[in-house]
Amino acid sequence: MNEKLRKALLQGELAKSTVPYKEVLGVAQGFLKKLGHGRLKAFIDEVEKEHAGERGMNYQSLITLRNNKSKRPAPILVQRILRDGMGLETEYHREADDYVYQFKDKEQAGAFDALKKLYVEQPPTEPAE
Fold first, then answer.
1. Cβ atoms 117, 126 nearer than 8 A
2. Cα separation values, 29 from 5, 77, 94, Å
3. Is the pTM of this model over 0.90?
4. What 3-state class would DSSP assign to 94?
């Protein structure tokens, strides 16, 4: 993490525009669950058309993340879900043994808070299989 960002975090200037990985992961998982099985492949196809050449977003990795079966953090994949699924631009930084996401501006942070209420605080109902 660069020194300017570190100082801003310590002074609390960016407190509302930064979020820990676990919280961002919960929103990303809620988004994936809300998509449902049939829309997941369509989502991947849309992302591949728009961002050809990027690796890491495939059906199996999204299913693993959605079902909370990842054995290690997937900060890049979560960042791409935020960007491509929710239109939120973030940067992430490693701090100690965790990641912290920083939003581009306060509007993006506010949009994230609204999505958190939608996807985490009111979790989607699981479709009957």
1. no
2. 27, 11, 20
3. no
4. strand
pLDDT digits (tens, 9 = 90+) for 10-21: 454 544 578 999
**Which residue is associated with the tokens 């989607």?**
124
Residues 71-113: tens digit of each pLDDT: 999 999 999 999 999 999 999 999 888 999 999 888 999 999 9
CA–CA gap between residue 33 and residue 24 (Å, rounded): 14
The residue type of 8 is: A
Strand partners, 99: 94
List beta partners, residue 66.
Answer: none
Check the CA dihedral 83-116-75-101 and report its sign.
positive
The whole-angstrom separation of Cα 71 and Cα 95 is: 19
Structure-token match 């100082």, residue found? 7
